[in-house]
Amino acid sequence: MMNWKQGLRAFQAVVRPHISAAQPTLVRAKRTTKLAPGASRVINMVSVISARKKQPRRLKMCKEDQVRHQMIMAAWKLHLRDEKAERTNKLKAQYEKITEACDELQKLDPALYEAATAREKGKRFSPEMRIPTDTPPRQPWQFDWSPPDK
Amino acid sequence: MRAFSTSARAAGKTAVSIVPPVHHTVKFRKSQLMDKYASLQIPRSSVTSPKYRPQRTCQDRVREHHINTVESDMMLITYAHNQQVLVGNKPRPRKGDSPYQLYQPQRVPYGGTQATKDIKVRSWRNVPMLEAITINCFVKPATMNHDLAAAAKVMLQQITGEKPTSVYARTNVPSWTLRPGMPMGAKIKLTGQPMNQFLTTLTEIVLPRSKTFTGVSNSTGDQNGNITFSLTADDIRHFPEIEGNLELWPQTFAIDLCFHTSAQVDPEARTLLSAYGLPFVGKERYPARW
């Protein structure tokens, strides 16, 4: 397991000379001089992957808070379960409707049924589709935009 | 006659008493009941456990997008009417008409040496979804400079926000000065919210600004719904965590990304990934059965 000093050494292997020059020698006593801003950033980054502390600190709660927490989590779990059940039921209903419609179409018009259930190859979602966000750009949609000719 | 759960099997009886009072249905060692091990009995989901991690601490755009839009669309796109289970090629058992066949291995499957998976009926229960993203960073020059592997590890930590694990060489190639046990890079498997966060950073910030990336090749895939592509060392510099600290990163490393989906065939995995903004280019090939 790598500790942060080894990690820092690793960084010195790739950082530019003027940065590595800014790094002071590591002393055990309390640091009196200030670290260079670059060096402290490196130490911050490397300390994240170091194995200095394997077990995180346990949350300290009094008995009352623990009971409160358990109660909230139980309610939250129920809520999640209901949410999932609702979602599954909706999907299931949609699936059953699709099956029903296909069966009906097969009886009514076999040719249309063949066309409707043929496997569509190379199906893609629209490349203009975006994952919705709460913070859209100032100009969320470019209405004049058309894809460039190839 | 009754027997103890541990001695019953040796006596040729069932290990668990089925006559009430039923006891010793769960095997345990008495030392596990000691007071000092009490904290180990606390489940991981309890706040009092040191392993407790809060779940769902923030809004997840990708997950919501999947539930609201992608899921039902994918179910409709992958729907096939009157489906049957398509049985894959399996190893063929010997006929057993010769005593010499008793300890011989099964014959290889038709059409190849590897068995293939069955394709199950698609329903509302197995709509394809993105399960995990594996990032693998293998640094060839780390044979010369071992510290580069550690730098690659820090780079993965920076762009994903999760802790990566080191990868080590397994083979001995003297001409490359490669020996088993050398640290050669890092890898990480992202799931859940960190995966979705990485995915949005990739498709909204990194890939649009890449100078070399034209799209994921349509020919990639391992036939089980896992899509792989790679980013160059220059593309990595567009990640905001690296870009904000560019003076610290004179050297970045190329990474290989593998998108693990629950799709049963590759074309469906590509359809799914296109919903998250990954472009696909090139000629697509379709499996014989899907």
TrEMBL record, chain A:
Pfam families, A to Z: MRP-L28
Principal subcellular localization: mitochondrion
Subcellular location per the Swiss-Prot or TrEMBL entry: Mitochondrion
Chain residue ranges for the region called Disordered: 119-150
InterPro entries: Ribosomal_mL40, Ribosomal_mL40_fung
GO BP terms: mitochondrial translation
Coiled coil location: none
UniProt name for this protein: Large ribosomal subunit protein mL40
Automatic annotation (TrEMBL), chain B:
Keyword entries, A-Z: Ribonucleoprotein, Ribosomal protein
This protein's record includes keyword Lipid biosynthesis: no
Region (Disordered): 88-107
Cellular compartments per GO CC: ribonucleoprotein complex; ribosome
Residue ranges occupied by any Large ribosomal subunit protein uL5 C-terminal domain in the UniProt entry: 183-280
A Gene Ontology molecular function term of the record: structural constituent of ribosome
One Pfam family hit: Ribosomal_L5_C
One Gene Ontology term from the biological process aspect of the record: translation
Residue ranges of every copy of the Large ribosomal subunit protein uL5 N-terminal domain listed in the record: 126-179
Protein family membership: Belongs to the universal ribosomal protein uL5 family.
Name of the featured protein: 54S ribosomal protein L7, mitochondrial
Organism, as annotated: Wickerhamiella sorbophila
